[in-house]
Design brief:
The complex is a heterodimer of chains A (452) and B (232).
Chain A lengths: L1 H13 L18 H15 L3 H4 L4 H16 L7 H12 L8 E5 L4 E6 H9 L4 H9 L1 H9 L7 H4 L2 H8 L8 E4 L10 H4 L2 E9 L2 E9 L4 E6 L4 H9 L3 H20 L7 E5 L10 H6 L8 E6 L13 E4 L15 E5 L6 H14 L4 E5 L22 E2 L3 E5 L4 E4 L14 E2 L4 H5 L4 H11 L1
Parallel strand pairs in A: 6-7, 7-10, 10-11, 11-15
Antiparallel strand pairs in A: 1-2, 1-13, 3-4, 4-5, 5-6, 8-9, 8-14, 12-13
Helix pairs in contact in A: 2-4, 4-5, 7-8, 12-13
Chain B lengths: L1 H19 L2 E16 L8 E18 L4 E20 L2 E25 L2 E28 L5 E10 L8 E16 L2 E12 L15 E15 L4
Antiparallel strand pairs in B: 1-2, 1-9, 2-3, 3-4, 4-5, 5-6, 5-7, 7-8, 8-9
Classes of the chains: A alpha/beta (452), B mainly beta (232).
């Protein structure tokens, strides 16, 4: 009897098997598709954060069961097997919800396949076939053809961003580094003069990354502010730094930011237009710098959660994220109407901004989201998966998940917009033909909405 | 058929004590639960699991076949908690304690030794539990900033939804030692230490290659027992 009890006790305790994991790179044993797929599957398994959407049950295991033998059949990674291997990877990735997702597959010498979730989704929405899209992700010249194609090449995803808005709508020379203010402008025939009495425009490219910003105030005291990315904190650092040239650019952009914060709290302001069309997001630290004066009270506008273990559905609770009002207590008049312009490429912190606006709207503020549904890329990402034990990972020399979210975000009421986007209150269509002629229907609609 | 079987089942429980009963005891106890998890933090660096605090309350029911050998069952609520800490570059990113509370039915064999008004007992058995609520608290370094461009650490304590990833049932082994003192006739107070070793994970099995966590608890409690029946 005693022996039996001891045996039962040991069996029960040994049933508590603890799974020891190994990092994804250790799955690479040779130059085969099978090795690379194993590394990719396990790396995703441990690091991807949207399993609650993409594998609430055993979907990711089914992917392994289905594709493991298929990749094994392909054998070595070679030019002959490239298209087949890429197709399998494409089929695995094409339905992922994380709209930040960017994947590169290399054979050590050159890039053999890449995948951008947001581009894939946009092309799908425009009616391109999977074959056409896959070709674009396999060969650069095929992707160039897609970009120039009449359908994609004229879409808002490709064309409507603040650089083009400054160029086509306002006649500003965005192809060079410049800062222009209304007092510098001697030409009266520029279209920007039809819009604004006072303005500051900024265009600067550093290491291939262009920053565009335009701040203007109309004669009837409507403030317009558009920019292509949340990069103000970096320029704030440049302004404090030692590099003389960068310091100048930093100071110029800070002047625009400061002017924006001054204008919106003036007593006679009649409206505010925030243009986030084509704004792809950027630094989280910009949020309090840019929007701190929209309200003088703190409120929850979003919730955030992290992975809390290695299993796919191990998450923390949802943590409320609060709006940080200006520390000096300055805030714009609550009755001033605000219009936020968005399009299908307004992503990440542009969408976080929309969530702030929606939360303010629910508090009774006169705020309207106008244009088109946003990108649906709400999760924040940072470039190190050790910080939260999640996010992007690399398996040299084959796999680079260049971008993927580190944390999940939902709107304050728990609504998940990842992969879907936030719908505008008023939809306004985009037309490239008109836009090129300087007829910006969305911007006109925003001005009309405030003026009527 | 089912009705007959149920009747027989109930009758057997009602008759058994009267056939063999020496004594019964029923009581209440409450105490502190120190729980940790048997788990692996895998290849992640600066990540660890640690013990955390909880509580336990129970209504024990004891039935002694003889003067020193009995069975214990009852109903108990045990909050089993653990702490998950993850740092990066020396900075704490997540310091979270999760609390899983189970409504449990234990069943244990008890062997007692009586010395005057004191008695000491050893129990061995198991328990079955049902997850009734989850809470979570701690500190979370969010990716938000304040106006000085410093990260914001959010401290929180909240109810956590029970979802499809949670294992609703828990089963494990229990071993306990207790010392009892008779304060007046039929009424004892006792101090108990108990170890619970769960062999079901906190999570449902929802994936291959899953990292499971198993509760391991030490429970320290004080209680009171009222004895009745039998040949006292």
């Amino acid at each position: 009897m005693k022996k039996a009890l001891i045996v039962i006790f040991c069996i029960l305790l040994s049933s508590c098997e603890i799974q020891e994991r190994i990092p994804p790179e250790e799955y690479i044993v040779d130059n085969t598709w099978s090795s690379v797929f194993d590394a990719y599957w396990h790396g995703m398994n441990d690091n991807y954060v949207f399993w609650s959407l993409d594998s609430p049950n055993r979907e990711w295991d089914e992917i392994y069961d289905k594709y493991s033998p298929l990749f094994a059949e392909l054998g070595e990674i070679s030019e002959e097997t490239r298209e087949k291997g890429a197709r399998y990877f494409y089929n695995i990735m094409k339905d992922l919800n994380d709209m930040h997702y960017m994947f590169y597959l290399s054979n050590g010498n050159y890039l053999i396949f890449w995948f951008y979730a947001i581009t894939n989704r946009n092309l799908m929405e425009l009616g391109y076939s999977e074959d056409e899209i896959l070709k674009g992700f396999l060969y650069f010249d095929e992707f160039e053809k897609l970009s120039e194609d009449n359908n994609y090449g004229t879409s808002e995803m490709e064309r409507e961003h603040i650089g083009n808005i400054m160029y086509f709508t306002f006649d500003l020379p965005v192809f060079e580094n410049f800062v222009e203010t209304s007092s510098d402008n001697n030409s009266t025939d520029k279209k920007i003069n039809e819009y604004f009495d006072d303005y500051m425009a900024f265009s600067h490219t550093i290491e291939g990354q262009s920053t565009f910003a335009l701040l203007g105030k109309t004669s009837d005291k409507i403030v317009y502010f558009g920019f292509n990315s949340f990069i103000f904190s970096d320029y704030y650092e440049y302004a404090q730094g030692q590099d003389e040239e960068l310091k100048l650019w930093g100071e110029e952009l800070m002047e625009i930011l400061n002017k924006f914060n001054e204008w919106i709290v003036e007593d006679d302001i009649k409206g505010l237009i925030i243009d986030l069309r084509g704004n792809t997001g950027g630094l989280n630290s910009d949020i309090p710098l840019l929007w701190g004066r929209l309200s003088d009270e703190s409120f929850v506008y979003m919730q955030e959660r992290s992975k809390m273990g290695d299993s796919r559905l191990d998450y923390t609770s949802w943590i409320p994220i609060r709006f940080q009002p200006d520390e000096n207590g300055l805030a714009m008049n609550k009755d001033v109407p605000i219009v936020v312009l968005t399009n299908r490429n307004s992503a990440s912190n542009a969408e976080v901004t929309v969530m702030i606006m929606k939360a303010l709207q629910e508090k009774g503020r006169n705020i309207t989201i106008m244009g088109n549904t946003t990108a649906g890329a709400n999760g924040y990402f940072i470039d190190n998966n050790d910080v939260y034990n999640s996010g992007l990972f690399t398996v040299e020399p084959y796999i680079e998940i260049y971008r993927t979210s580190t944390l999940q975000h939902v709107y304050k009421d728990g609504t998940m917009y990842e992969g879907i986007g936030i719908s505008p209150d008023i939809e306004v269509p985009f037309n490239w033909e008109d836009f090129q002629k300087g007829e910006d229907a969305r911007l006109e609609a925003a001005f009309n909405h405030i003026r009527i | 058929m089912l009705r007959k079987f149920s009747l027989l089942f109930i009758l057997s429980f009602a008759l058994l004590p009267s056939l063999f009963a020496d004594s019964w005891a029923v009581g209440f106890n409450a105490g502190y639960v120190l729980n940790g998890v048997k788990a692996s933090s895998g290849y992640r660096e600066e990540t660890s699991y640690d013990v955390f605090h909880g509580y336990g309350v129970s209504i024990p029911i004891q039935y002694y076949f003889t003067e020193d050998l009995g069975l214990e069952t009852g109903l108990r609520l045990t909050e089993r908690s653990y702490r998950y800490v993850h740092s990066f570059d020396g900075e704490t990113i997540l310091d979270i304690h999760e609390h899983n509370a189970y409504l449990e039915i234990p069943i244990m064999m008890i062997k007692s030794w009586n010395v005057n008004r004191f008695s000491f007992s050893f129990g061995l058995g198991g328990y079955l539990g049902l997850l009734v609520y989850k809470t979570e608290g701690g500190s979370f370094l969010t990716l938000s900033f304040n106006q000085d461009l410093d990260f914001i650490t959010e401290r929180y304590y909240t109810w956590k939804d029970i979802d499809t990833s949670d294992n609703l049932f828990e089963a494990g082994l229990s071993v306990k030692l207790s010392s009892t003192f008779e304060i007046v006739e039929d009424i004892d107070i006792f101090f108990e230490t108990r170890g619970d070793f769960s062999f079901t994970p906190i999570e449902r099995e929802y994936q291959e290659n899953q990292s499971f966590r198993y509760n391991l608890s030490a429970v320290f409690s004080l209680g009171v027992l009222y004895s009745f029946g039998g040949n006292q």
